[in-house]
Amino acid sequence: VKISRLELLLATIFHNLNKRLPVAQHIDTDKSISLLLSFLVGAYDRQQTGRLTVFAIKIALATLCTGKLMDKLRYAFSQVSNSSGTMEWDKFSDYLQQVLALATAVFEGPTFGYTETALEQCFQKDQQVNLNAFLDVMLADPCPPCLMWLPLLHRIASVENVYHPVVCDACQVRSFTGFRYKCQRCTNYQLCAQCFWRGRTSSGHSNEHEMKEYSSYKSPGRQLAHSIHKSLRCVPVPNRSTHPIFPERPERPLDLANIVPITPASRRRFSEDLKDWTSQILPGQFPVTNGSAMDDEHKLIARYSAKLSGRTQYPFVLPKDRTTSMDENLNEKTLITRLEEENGEMMREMEMLKQQQELENTDEQLNGLRERKAQLEEKMRVMQQTRRQLMQQLEVLMLELNQSKGGSMGAIPESLIGIGSRVSTAFRDRAMQRASSVPAAQLQGDLLHAADDITNNMSTLLRELGQ
């Protein structure tokens, strides 16, 4: 599985979790997805291939999620067992590798890393292991050494919100959460988990003293009542199993893929008629006719199936042979298949209509763009015509200015002469007549005015093109 698909899976999980939680308990989904994704990639993608196995993702999510350890182990056994309910050695080896990879990812590889001896710590290779034997070993006290961290992880998760209204004798905090440790030698000497793990002590207590771990708090009155109850118990309780006994063979899961839900109207009609129907089929009240007891049983089944399918009328007399019922089942399956085909055809038609609508919208947008383009081109032609006329006027004014200043002011600069020559070359239009009697000051003003007009028209053209 690619890492992108794993990220999508984690996003779905965390977003659905937020939908179930109250608003005050919502989690930061982006941060949670990033942290968990980085941890899984670091644990299972050591070679940086960008892919993870589906089995590794299943085992990791099942191990890290909130839940009972027994339920997680039952799920793990379903992944490593065959159809007869017996564990397969190769699959269990793969499971142990994936579980211990989680401990290795937090730098506990030297203690809890995968080795060949880790398998033998759990089961013998030729041993036939069913679900009960698997749970007996995994939930035993002590459990296999390579998995000692697994029950501890679940105990820590289960007590992180447990409140103890007692004073820690080391740090003197008045109350704390988590584990509570009580000395078996010192009188009423109790420590919080932080002080116990860091070795903090006070008074005459020593780290060598035996400590008892508590994951819950009981008031002194309840402790006294519990002690009296234990002392008055006459018959010793035999050693009970750490888990309920499960069947030897795995239960066959229900296949709900082909279940057809009834319509709401049929469901209401079924609930209204249920009371009358049940009163008719109670033991001793069902009318027994000339048919045998087997016919009555088949009649009950027929009535019940008719109610479930939503039919208001159903036969009261069962056919003598089973061929009719088989034909009915075949007809129902055929009807279901035909309805599924019609449903698929309708979905395909809806998709085609959606695509056609999108194409029509695209055509409308293209037509609008073409019209806009034509308008801009027309404006550009008008602006070019105006520019051509202004440039012609500018050329005439420059020539007149040059003639009027011929002897006194000298020749026009080369840059201005070049402008006139380029205008003549570009437009090839000399129809306009030059006026030799116009004063020089007026010619200069006309020249500046024409230059301003050219600038304004060019600015307008650029704005139009930009829109």
TrEMBL record:
Residues forming coiled coils: 336-400
Pfam families for this protein: EF-hand_2, EF-hand_3, ZZ
Key word Ribonucleoprotein present: no
SUPFAM superfamilies: EF-hand, RING/U-box
Cellular component, GO annotation: dystrophin-associated glycoprotein complex; synapse
InterPro entries according to UniProt: EF-hand-dom_pair, EF-hand_dom_typ1, EF-hand_dom_typ2, KCMF1/Dystrophin, Znf_ZZ, Znf_ZZ_sf
UniProt keyword annotation of Coiled coil present: yes
Keywords: Coiled coil, Metal-binding, Zinc, Zinc-finger
Signal peptide positions (record): none
GO molecular function: zinc ion binding
Gene Ontology biological process terms in this record: modulation of chemical synaptic transmission; muscle cell cellular homeostasis; synaptic signaling
Alphabetical list of Gene3D superfamilies matching this protein: 3.30.60.90, EF-hand
Domain ZZ-type: 163-219
Record-linked PANTHER family: DYSTROBREVIN, ISOFORM F, E3 UBIQUITIN-PROTEIN LIGASE KCMF1
Name by which UniProt lists this protein: ZZ-type domain-containing protein
Native source species: Onchocerca ochengi (Filarial nematode worm)
